[in-house]
Amino acid sequence: MKGRKALCMMALALAFLMTGTLANAKGKSDSSDEKVYIGFSMVSMENEAWATMAAGAKAFVASLPAGSAELVIMTGREAPVQWDNIQNFVAKYGSNGILWVDPITIGITPNIAALCEQEGVYYVNLFNKEASIVPTDYSKWVVFMTQDDEANGYLAAKTLFDSIAGKGNVLELYGVQGNDASFKRNLGLKRALSEYPNITLLDTQIGDFSGPAAQTVTENWLTKYQAAGTTIDAIFSAGDTMALGAIEALKQKGLAGKVKVCGIDGISAALDAVKEGTLVSTVYYDGYLTGGYGVSYAYAAKTGRIDPKAMDQKRRMFYTKTILVTKDNVDSIITNYIKSVPKYDYTNLDAAVDSIITNPKL
């Protein structure tokens, strides 16, 4: 695990070393400045999946000529904080900046799109967006990249249900309210539930993609349902960090491995849990690819290598690859993605595309 953990620690350091003092910006950078400033806006650096995406962005910057780009990491768990960070970044760097944005909620995405279009800032949107807007509505929004979260939720749920022989009581740890990935993973769970009539969903609680929050929720569940004499057979978690929090609560009651748990994201601790049998499955999501290629798309547009309006418009919205991980393939995932860091050719932008998302406006 040393390779990935070291990179995650490196990415954590970046949050402090490379984040600009945006709140004090008094004006835009001189347009003659050739350096490109890369605004990297995300929820936090606390989750390994997010930290890995920042490490992917750093790897892209390292692939460029020295001094040609600078990474500015911006974090905030609330949409107003994220929006302020983005506005301050654009005010400071103007069209010398590009943006990689993982929106906390879909509600701010029209504002981001409008601001970048007005100020001439190329950007890439990850994971969350209003359904009514698409990149092809704009010249500066380069691409929309995401994972197929409904499919991931569905696969995770089916694997979990099969682990309890298709019958029993299940609980759900939901991610963040208003977050598109959380919503779609929940849709996948619901689709799987429709196919398993002997599975009962007892309750759904917000876990905020937080291990401690999920642990507290699970502890409360165990107390509640034990007192009622109701058996808990499995816990569906929309994220690995929450799944690990649930497992900690189960360990305290001697139930780890007995109450089945699944996760999504593929962080190294979750892969360890799959190996030890306390986690049924996770869905590995390559953050290095998303961070690196996401920034690469915006940089290619900024430097004139691609023109968003001239490229194949269908390819401006796409899914990246994910892998369902169980005890059957966990060793190979660890070997290929954890013990060794994947290498990418960032000049080959098509390498980031797994499948195309249908654009309703084309």
Highest CATH level, the class of the largest domain: Alpha Beta
Tally of structural domains: 2
Second rung of CATH, namely the architecture of the largest domain: 3-Layer(aba) Sandwich
Query: Which fold does the CATH topology of the largest domain refer to?
Result: Rossmann fold
Overview of the molecule:
The chain is α/β, with parallel strands linked by helices. The protein has two domains: 2-146 and 286-319 and 344-356, 3-Layer(aba) Sandwich (Rossmann fold); 149-285, Rossmann fold (3-Layer(aba) Sandwich). 42% of the residues lie in helices and 18% in strands. The protein contains eleven helices and 13 strands. It has helices spanning 2-17, 48-62, 79-93, 109-119, 149-163, 180-195, 211-228, 240-252, 268-276, 287-302, 330-338; strands at residues 36-42, 69-75, 97-101, 123-126, 141-146, 168-174, 199-206, 234-237, 260-262, 282-285, 317-319, 322-325, 355-356. Helix 4 links the parallel strand 3 and strand 4 (123-126). Helix 2 (48-62) packs across helix 10, helix 3 runs parallel beside helix 4 and helix 9 runs antiparallel to helix 11 (330-338). The longest helix is centred in the middle third of the chain and has 18 residues, at 211-228. The protein is elongated and about 65 Å long. The model is unreliable at 1-32 (pLDDT under 50).
